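W.,

You were right to be curious about this one. When I first looked at the sequence I had no strong expectations either way, so I just let the prediction run and decided to look at it fresh. Below is the sequence, 147 residues in total, followed by the output.
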Amino acid sequence: MKNKEYLKTVKSEMPPSRHVKTMVRAFIVGGLICCIGQGISDLLKLAFPAMDKQVNQQFTVLIIIAVTGILTGFGVYDNIGKFGGAGSIIPITGFANSVVAPAIEFKREGYIFGLCANMFTIAGPVIVFGVVSSIIVGLIYLIIGGV
């Protein structure tokens, strides 16, 4: 009986869940970022019709990273992240934000010991894990005869 009373008390005191609202916001922000990326790609196709598809993709990614870095520098991307949650960490934009934000934060400590030493505090483990896991997958692929 005490357990039921405890659960009833917890349920009455617990704030309501906002999962649906959070998921909708993430979907909207992530979708808008993807639409903006597609728009950049389409504009590049219009501006440079002879551009190779792979070069177009590379320039699109470069522009998205640059815009994310600039928005992070001005503090705008933080607001986008607060509103959109996980939708704002689509791999390219989230990675650019995770490199630029610590760089801005530690710039006061100097360029070498502040900016350079701490720029990859968040993104560094992601880079290391990505490189190591790709090597492991490549070795497995090589061993099973996929090459």
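Here's what jumped out at me. The chain is about 80% helix and 0% strand. And, maybe more interesting for your project: Residues 90 and 130 are 16 Å apart (CA to CA).

Coffee later to discuss?

I.
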